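Thread: sanity check for a docking pose with LB5GJZVW

Original post by kr_44:
Hi all, I'm comparing my docking run against an independent structure prediction. Below are the sequence and the ligand SMILES. Could someone generate the full complex and paste the structure tokens? I mainly care about where the ligand ends up relative to the chain.
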Amino acid sequence: MPTLGAIADDFTGATDLATMLVGRGFRTVVAVGPDSLDGADPALTDADAVVVALKSRTAPVDEAVALSRRSLDALRALGCRRFYLKYCSTFDSTPRGNIGPVTDALLDALDARRTVVVPSFPATGRTVYRGRLFVHDELLDESPMRRHPLTPMLDSRVHRLLEPQTRRPVARVGLETVRSGPEALRAALDAPERSDALTVVDAVDDRDLAVIAAATEDFPLVTGAAGLAVGFEGAHRGAARSAPASRPGDPAVVLAGSASAATRAQVAHALDLLPHRRLDLAALRADFDGALAELTAFARRSWAADPGRPPLIYAVATPEDVEKETPAGAEPASDLVERALARCASHLVDAGARRLLVAGGETSGAVVSALRARTLAIGAPIAPGVTWARAEVAPSGRPETIDLALKSGNFGATDIFTTAWEQLA
Ligand SMILES: Nc1ncnc2c1ncn2[C@@H]1O[C@H](COP(=O)(O)OP(=O)(O)O)[C@@H](O)[C@H]1O
Ligand SMILES: O=C(O)[C@@H](O)C(=O)COP(=O)(O)O
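Reply from moderator J.T.:
Ran it for you. Here is the predicted complex with LB5GJZVW included:
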């Protein structure tokens, strides 16, 4: 029976946390949305931890809160007693939410008064020092996250980002206290000014995260990126990862909807090596089905020409490709891109694709929902925060088992689109 329940605000974040938890000795399953939390499913009841993947990061606040509350109730019904709200290591949110409102709602539901806020994930270059969030050497608001199409991050002070989003006071604990050990940190968290607050805690390396995890072991709810789970200890060290569903040479495809800097570099690298097509937004607006049929035909031709070179279908190669203004009366580009890549994934699985690498959190949510997967079993790791997962899908009713990698826009080495497949060998 699972005892740890996590709620992730996007799909790449869910597999990011799940691969970390597997590495920490938790048999972990990702459930796609609260409706997949079926108490009779042995994949869930035999796990130590269940991570619910939501597409709630940029949803309207009420919807994000309702989805998270339903997930919490369903995780409790499965037996979970300790909860983890997983959001982005770059704290992706707006002044309205959704990190603050969801944290408030989960605390209320758990009858808890306070929690910690820990976006730090040093393995991917995210650290928090003096309350400021760094992405490698840059402050968050000086990093490419400043120009994110959905959640531009214009401040690096985590407390300032959170304050307008929550009803609770926002407090801070500095690195000096963390480095004094779990008892000192716990005393700081128990101080009256933090006893009903959301406390942003500095963490620069994995030892800091282990201290935070130890100091909050009995908190009903912790919040953060996947890094905090570095300090968790499950009972199944060396927990098995699921075997690949596909074989080398099976049709594979890369679908990239992210406009993030790392993905743009990965696209640029792959353009020289893989057959590729950029989504043509005008063509999609003029004839969605026709444009999709052309993309499917392109993928089929690529597989026939060389099964070793997966076709790449992408949305953005340079920042200028991001559509800033929607033509009057037209569907916003971000929705159109998600819808196109989701439909593309369905067509391609129907056409035989058994290995899909998807870049982008919102994009991954749209793709996995279109594929109608219910659970993801965590497979071979690819890079910090990125993993293969095995999924039963049924885009048009016929079940298939495929290998899926959901890559956060900003994660992964430049050559990930050409090298990730080696982990399936
Ligand atoms: N050309 C474009 N113009 C506008 N928005 C785009 C374009 N291409 C992609 N997008 C949108 O940008 C968003 C990227 O978000 P996401 O998939 O979460 O990537 P990341 O992981 O980098 O945040 C998606 O909603 C996607 O549809
Ligand atoms: O914590 C992280 O950075 C990732 O797990 C994550 O949430 C990434 O979000 P996207 O960049 O939108 O994929």
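Residues 4-231 form a domain with the Rossmann fold fold (CATH 3.40.50.10840). Hope that helps with the comparison, let us know if your pose agrees.
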